[in-house]
Design goal:
single chain; 2 domains; 91% helix; elongated; transmembrane; Hypoxia_induced_domain; mainly alpha; Twin transmembrane helix small protein
Length: 68
């Protein structure tokens, strides 16, 4: 179970980085994309960060339990 959580945790962290990069790129470029999608990118990043933190805590908990 711990290995599955580890892989999903890594994917969630990668999703945070991707959404952050898209949001920063849109903010740096400004224009219509930022006006239309800037707030949505921020909310999506916060959601992905929350999911990643929950998975990290779950992984640490499972490691402390011996992976059972």
């Amino acid at each position: 179970m711990g290995d599955i959580v580890y892989v999903v945790m890594i994917l969630a962290m990668a999703a945070v980085v991707v959404v952050l990069a898209i949001g920063l790129g849109g903010f740096a470029g400004g224009g219509a994309f930022n006006a239309k999608h800037g707030n949505k990118m921020m909310r999506l990043r916060l959601l992905f960060q929350f999911i990643a933190v929950v998975l990290i805590v779950l992984y640490v908990y499972l490691r402390g339990q011996g992976g059972q």
